[in-house]
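job 3f2a | input accepted
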Amino acid sequence: MAPPTHLLYALYPRAHWRVNINLIRKYLHQFTGCRVIGISVNTRSDTIEKAIDYVKDDFDEVLTLEDNPELREAAMYYSLLDWAETRGWGGYAFMANSKGTSRDGDTKDRLAATRLWVKLLHETNLSDMDRVNTMLERYPILGSLKRYGKYPCFPDNQGDWHYSGTCYWLNLNNLFKKDWRGVYQHHRYGAEAFPGMMYDSDDGGVLWGDGVGNPYDLVYVEKLYKEWKKKD
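job 3f2a | predicted structure (232 res):
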């Protein structure tokens, strides 16, 4: 029997957040473990009451997380992982977030690129659960749209790779045996940098999209999405 598959989702309910929730809803039935959403609000977002009302029937646990506008999903991912470990979780967990809802002043093309990028992240990570389970038997961490190199905006002690978009699968049995709290950086890009700081590149499995480029380039992301759909 395959280990349980959990969902840890970080939501900042602003801008197009309902579009992102509707995307993840298509795949909720595939999670055999616990589906948890952590919600962080402030004066620029919708209220906690509106957010909870929209998601309460989709998730097993709804957590209200402290707002940290400097860290955003980096703080939320840490809280979700801490919550899971203190409850003795094992198995596999998919970490995802309401990508792009905290940004101001995006151009029309950049916003369109972000939305297509989010759609691609969901489809590539969640369309083939048999493959996910098989690969997580081999890899401690797994995702799509893997990008290589170091980036000025990341923590100083970053690794040399990450999953572009901060959506990835974790083998919790492996992770929770390690000092992940000592590795995790409370930094604006800490959640995205975490895979490359916690694991070597060879430990990071790729479901699709190995060595991708700039995800904010609409022309490039449209090309990527067409390549993904061609495989069908």
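job 3f2a | Residues 30 and 129 are 8 Å apart (CA to CA).
job 3f2a | closed
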